[in-house]
Specification:
5-stranded parallel β-sheet; 17 helices; alpha/beta; 13 strands; extended; 411 residues
Amino acid sequence: MENLQSLKQRFGIIGNDLHLNRSLEKAVRVAPTDISVLVTGESGVGKENIPRIIHQLSHRKHAKYIAVNCGAIPEGTIDSELFGHEKGAFTGATTTRKGYFEVADGGTIFLDEVGELPLTTQVRLLRVLENGEFIKVGSSQVQKTNVRIVAATNLEMQSAIEKGKFREDLFYRLSTIEITLPPLRERKEDIHLLFRKFAADFAQKYSMPTIRLDNDAIRLLSNYRFQGNIRQLRNIAEQISVVEENRMITPEKLNQYLPNNRGNLPAVVGGSKAENDFANERDIMYKILFDMRNDINDLKKLTLDIMKGGSIDNLNEENHKLFEKIYQEQHPSETGNVEVVQLPNTTTIDNQNTYDFVETIEEDESLSLQDKEIEMIKKSLEKNNNKRKLAAKELGISERTLYRKIKQYDL
């Protein structure tokens, strides 16, 4: 079996992470067989290296190796690309065409982003895996092919299966052996090694001195959560190599190239910006309703104490403060529909006015979430002198979302 270090040099793989090494070792062990392999991992982790290793170390290495990006081929033509078509099978099919499975007979096909395949194509692919048979588009003749299939995806396949977007039987046929590549943020010791390699490559490409990082910049880079993984790191190295005149990079300078740098804070994975904004708005609404409930409970307690004592002046210091707090609110109706009023004909006991409680019927204030949202936005804008950036930060939503709300409610 080929030495792991020489394998990395041969295929240009950099890093000594334990999980990376285990994945490479598994690829080497499975290569001599014809078992189908599924490579999983986030976008940008280098999944395309595994099928190349498997093909080059297999008995098929002298035959064709074809890499197909399933997500880049339109749904209407994917069957024709993979399995070929007969002349006249559809508009524009002026000649008979061989598909990848026919061209790669005896070799290896790498299906990248296999989770993007349409369901009808998945049925055709399942037949190839089971029997080595396929039918061209527009034909009725069954053809044989002998190909080794290696697939890759960055999707959560179990979730796709549950949603009916991917066939479960096809998944199990593809994933006879599953190889998972770790994300770059879990390979912290490898980040600087990769950066140095990219920096040296770009220095040679653009004929300029190699950029270097000082110790603090190295720590900053190693602790950054690369959502784009190796692809993002390479892009950053290229930007700095081209733009920066000073070839020694400080953390302050490096930070300008790290978008949304949050250091070691956890990142939201798999959630879109719109979903995060919605979650923030929902949290604000929950807080408003929770505060309203607390105010109502406080008023009930205050009402009970006054009824027992017979007079506001008999309240203890704590309830006096509570009373003042409730009635100094800008919208006192939020605290309930019971208020304290002084009757016209009051009697005096020990030089103290006696107050009675009367239930007053008022129009119920709207508890609409939209009304509360408008009110919160208005208050925040007033407080921050109509500075939307500060108001958005206080409300816990993005400035773009705040702008949309202002336009929506014509504020």
